[in-house]
Every structure is written in structure tokens, then in C-alpha cells.
Specification:
- With 390 residues, the protein is α/β, with parallel strands linked by helices.
- The protein contains 16 helices and eight strands.
- It has a six-stranded mixed beta sheet, sandwiched between helices. It has a two-stranded antiparallel ribbon with strand order 1-2.
- A hairpin with a 4-residue loop joins strand 1 and strand 2.
- The longest helix is centred in the middle third of the chain and has 38 residues.
- The relative contact order is 0.08.
Amino acid sequence: MTTYKTDKLRRWRLVLGGDDADGTGCQLGGDDLAMDGALGMLYEMSPEDKEKNRMNVGKGASNPHVARWLGDIRRFFPSTVVRVIQKDAFERYGLKRMLLEPEFLTAVEPDVHLISTLLSLKGIMPQKTKETARLVVQKVVEELEKKLSAATRQAVLGSLNRAIRNYRPKYHEIDWPRTIKANLKHYQPDYQTIIPERRIGHGRKRRSSLKDIILCIDQSGSMATSVVYAGIFGAVLASLPALSTRVVVYDTAVVDLTDELDDPVDVLFGTQLGGGNDTPRALDYCQGLISRPEDTIFVLISDLYEGHGSGEMLERLKNFIHSGVQVIALLALSDDGRPSYDQHNASAMSAMSIPVFACTPDLFPDLMAAAINRQDLKQWAAEHDLISQA
């Protein structure tokens, strides 16, 4: 009981910060003292010290004490807590400029939001810092690819296999295991055999891709997290030989990143987060990429804030649909919660039978599989409780 009481006092002492009024009378030592000091640097700094810290951020060759502090919090807390502490540090002390220093980057806990910030700052990074930033981005990309690639391949390849299944096979093309399974209800006990009323064959190889997929990504600042996920998914989809995948990003200019898809890090560093956007110009460029409209899935990833260009954007999308292109509008591709978007444009697109909703990264593979199978995507979004524009 004494040990339990002591541990409880210790925890309260860490929470309350050790001021005279905390009432615990508990003295810390060892790692507890170091942990208290790490938290105190962020949450107990005086307003004067806070302002001084703001003024000094980014000055000089490096700030090793900040890097050491980041190392301390990573030592004492799990990564989920570290990310919260880092976010508080960015907001309280303006530490975004610290991302321009290599020592800071090697100590920070990387995640998607950090990558978004790095990409927005890459234009003002010194070369040495940019090299470190690229390593940080690569680490996150590899982790996300490992998490997302298998699900994407499984969902998309499964839908493609169903799309090319051969139901009028020649004898040498019959897939016997699938055929037997599909005809078990036709088993004849008297003859101890199955009547293969429905024959299923192996898909016949085609010289061209089965589907053309175009990801058109709004890279304005509000879409930062979506850009990161979309770039990674684009690289994964491009690795599937049955698909022809193109990735186009745009703000007021249009950049085709398709040639970079073998390296998702290059894709992300090819983006330029921030600034305005010109969706009609991006749609005009993408229209030139479409050679098989009936076999093309066009995914516009944008918050749809277009201003005076809204009418032209909607007219171009209407032309896509009339030509046979399957159009999907994603308001966000992220886990950030309800996105901000232009409701007028979203409603207008929905009225044109374009499915409009926000999608989380874990559901994106299933979305692409549903699109390949020509499912009703509005109903699909409703079944998965996604934010949708009915």
C-alpha cells in the first residue's frame, strides 16, 4: 500500500509541476526529474522566456538544446504522446522555423503532418537541411507504404481479376477449382460427379492496361495531408501492371508527376504546397491524357474552392462524364476529420451524378476496387459512413 501511495504522489507531482502549491511534498530523482524538466521546458516557461524563444528560433547555425529536448521526450513518452507535445511546441513557440535545421529534424518524431509542413518549407530550406528532410520524408513514406500497399494490391487486384474473369472459356482455359466451387449445388449423387453448368476460366491476357486511372490533386495549402497520401497511393497504383496510372498536381500551374511514380519521395518533393489553384486548367490538361474514356477513372482530390472558375470547372467535368469517364471527387484523403470545402460546388457536382465525399486512407483501396467494379459509389460512401454530399 505504501508503494502504491508513493507512486500516486509521484504521478501527481509530475502532473502539477512541483510548484509550492502542488501539495504533494514529493521529491523527484533520476529519470523522473529529467522527465519533469522536459515537460517544464514546454509547459512552465514564463511569457518573457516564451517570447525570447520565439525571437531566437531559427537564428544561428543550430539549436542543439531543442534537439536534445526532443530526444528527451522521445525517450520518456510513446510516439503518440510525443506528437501531441511536438504539436504544442510548434503552436506555443513558433518552432516551424526550427525545421530548417538538420539537428532538429533528426530528433523530431516524423508523421504525415510533419511531412506536410516540410514539403511546404522545402523552397526555403538550405541544401544540407533539405538532404536531412528527404531522409525524414523517406522514413514516413516507407512506413506508410508498408501499411497501405498490401491492402491496395489486394483490393484492386481482386477487383481487376473479377473484371477480367472469363465465363466462356475454352477447355484449356477452364479454372477447375473455381468452376467446381461454383457448381457444387449441381452435384449428382447417383453419378458421383458435378455438372459444370457454369464454367469459369482464367482471365485472358490483354496487351493494354485494364483501367486508366488519373489522380488530379489540388496542392493548395489546405490539402497538404491529402497530397501526401495521394502521392503514396499513386505510386502504389502505378506499380500494378494491370493499371495505367497518372498523377497530376496543380495550383495555378499544372505539373505531371507520372514519370516520378517509381519513387514516391520524388513525387512528394515534386509538389509545391500552398498558393492558389486553377482547377479548370488542370482539367484541361487531364482531358488530353484520356484516350479510353469508358475505361478511365478520374479522381479529383480537392476542397473545390475555385471562386470565379467554378462554372468552367463544372462544365469541364460535365464533358468528362458525357464522354464516358468515371469521375470521383474526394474532398479530402486524410484522417483529419470533417474537411472544409465549397458546399455549392460539391452540391452541383453531386447533381451531375458525381460521387462527392471525403475518404480516409484506410478505405481508399476499397474505394478504388468499388470504382473498378462500377459500384454505386454514393451508396458505398453511405455504407462506410463517409462524409458525403448527397
